[in-house]
Amino acid sequence: MMAIRYHERGGPEVLRYERVPRPSPAAGELLVRVRASSVNPGDWQIRSGLAGDRFALPYVPGWDISGVVEQAGEGAAGFREGEEVYGMTASGGGHAEYAVIPAAQAACKPKSLSHAEAAAVPMSAFTAWRALLEQGALRPGETVLVNGAAGGVGHFAVQIAKRAGAKVVAVASGRNEAWLRELGAVEFLDYTEVPVDRSPWRADLALDAVGGPDGDRLLAAVKPGGRLVPVAFGVYSPDKAAARSVAVGEVLMPPISTDALARLAAEFDAGRLRVVLDSVYPLRDAYLAHERSEGRRLRGKIVIEMETLA
Ligand SMILES: NC(=O)c1ccc[n+]([C@@H]2O[C@H](COP(=O)([O-])OP(=O)(O)OC[C@H]3O[C@@H](n4cnc5c(N)ncnc54)[C@H](OP(=O)(O)O)[C@@H]3O)[C@@H](O)[C@H]2O)c1
Q1: Per the database record, which ranges form the Enoyl reductase (ER) domain (predicted)?
Q2: What is the tens place of the pLDDT at every residue in 112-129?
Q3: Residues 294, 126, 249, 302: what is their CA dihedral angle, to the nearest 10 degrees?
Q4: CATH architecture under which domain 124-248 falls
Q5: Taking a C-beta distance cutoff of 8 angstroms, is the pair 228, 249 a contact?
Q6: 254 Cα–ligand 1 center, Å
Q7: In the structure, which protein residues have their CB atom closer than 6 angstroms to any atom of ligand 1?
């Protein structure tokens, strides 16, 4: 089968479109004929070495997939050959014509979404959902600030917070204002004009999808007694957080589940959530998709489609 693979860590130029052995499903896994796979910052953070070296080389990137079950491994109950599924692999491998995925991290593809749209969902939407509704314990009527609102996680977070009854403040660059308001933001802060620590709005809950060395700045946009949930790694000084009585959560990366994917699928099929695709690339051009993701100026999600399959 054809796949995107790299043999050394580095920039997008290390990505090779090449023939690799087709994986076989172990017990509890599905072999999926991949129709689309989305790009997450984790893909290039692992590729570049920024996220450490826990994945052995050569390595096929790609966590999120949507496709068709080719074969169900022993004990992968609940799935049959030919079924359309979406979900997350256990350790990458999605930028390929076939990938294995734990059955416990797969569910029926949302019927209303194309494979490209469905592949955009798992990691980003699950992260936004868990951070806001579980870790952040969002309550109706609260003000929620989404920092990095135009990205993969952020654009789902805006919609999920709105549906949960929050007043949403989106933080992004000005060119993204109109579509983020359409998705549910009632206030908009252009961080290129007004730094987030000078936000005129104080949130009960802030979701930080930006992180970095300036994480602390977000504390000033949270009410005393409020919560800040980072999904990206950032610097949040415990002293500054304590002085402002803001509870800062940890960055969590729990595995996705069939149940979570099924709940998300129901939201998309009911029209309560939508996917915004920034761009779609054929598999052989995955390096362009990684380049675009790394540029950090996307709107929504970047997807890779398997052009060689009917
Ligand atoms: N914990 C987890 O399980 C988990 C899961 C998924 C992702 N993550 C992490 O969460 C972070 C976000 O992921 P993502 O997929 O949403 O990334 P993404 O789609 O690549 O985000 C790009 C967006 O960030 C915005 N942005 C860049 N600098 C900004 C700033 N200073 N202030 C506000 N917005 C800014 C850009 O919008 P503008 O053009 O408007 O600036 C762009 O739309 C990444 O670090 C990722 O690794 C963690």
Answers
A1: 10-304
A2: 999 999 999 999 999 999
A3: 10
A4: 3-Layer(aba) Sandwich (3.40)
A5: yes
A6: 18
A7: 40-42, 123-124, 127, 147-148, 150-154, 171-173, 176, 191, 209-211, 231-232, 251, 253, 293, 296-298
